[in-house]
Amino acid sequence: MIRVGFIGLGSQGAPMARRIVEDGYPLTLWARRPASLEPFADTTARFAATPAELGTSSDVVCVCVVGDADVEDVLLRPDGVLAGMAPGGLVAIHSTVHPDTCHRVAYEAAKREIAVIDAPVSGGGGAAARRALLVMVGGADEDVARCRPMLETFAGPLIHLGPLGSGQLAKALNNFVFTAQVTAALETFAFADALGMDRAAVAQVLAHGSGGSRASAILAASGFNTAGLRQAAPLLRKDVSIMLDVARASGAAEPAALVKLVDATLTTLDE
């Protein structure tokens, strides 16, 4: 089995890493906070002192940190992953970042004969534990094939979308559409209230009907409490910004109706 390194043991990354080690892969972990490693004390995972040490111990390194700057930091700093990884290694970027970040990392990695794929995810930690995490992959065919069995310890489905950066583009589009759906869901339930309908009953109808969406399901599951969505607003704003920046750079016309809904959602969540 390939040796795997994992950085980014948050609510999403930790269940992914646990699936990897529980399927028998030799796993090395690094975290800024020692507390993040404590849940793995009952596994065979090894702990590295630096990202470079993790790179030395790994054939494939998975990165699931929050943002672009974090990805570049753990990979490119003097004691970063690339400083320790041997030629022939591979980095999988699970973080949701700009496609340009993936290309910058790949440029530096190529100097050391290290491959890079992007593999952002959607579905949450619970989905990873059930092997039901959507994994959107961009990269060369041979690189994706090499680490597919490892990714499939938590993926279901794994979709290879094209060259490097394609996974990030798909993730940004997914989150852009989800952000638009939040306003549609909020207005749907408000409209149901005005009609004198029971929200919970309407949510059940939407869950089984053609008018449902992931946003309406999340709202219903939260008891129509928007606190979780408000907490996620900075990440949604980041992903929307990535989507619109890529659209402008490519010359693609922005979808006006969706942009209007997205703006309404972000305004609502900021109130």
From TrEMBL:
One of its GO terms (molecular function) is NADP binding. Pfam families: NAD_binding_11, NAD_binding_2. Keywords: NAD, Oxidoreductase. The active site is at 171. Residues 3-161 form the 6-phosphogluconate dehydrogenase NADP-binding domain. The keyword Oxidoreductase applies. PROSITE patterns: 3_HYDROXYISOBUT_DH. One of its GO terms (biological process) is organic acid catabolic process. The keyword NAD applies. Gene3D superfamilies: N-(1-d-carboxylethyl)-l-norvaline Dehydrogenase, domain 2, NAD(P)-binding Rossmann-like Domain. InterPro entries: 3-OH-isobutyrate_DH-rel_CS, 6-PGluconate_DH-like_C_sf, 6PGD_dom2, 6PGDH_NADP-bd, HIBADH-like_NADP-bd, HIBADH-related, NAD(P)-bd_dom_sf. It comes from the Bacteria. Residues 165-256 form the 3-hydroxyisobutyrate dehydrogenase-like NAD-binding domain. Belongs to the HIBADH-related family. This is NAD(P)-dependent oxidoreductase. It comes from Frankia nepalensis.
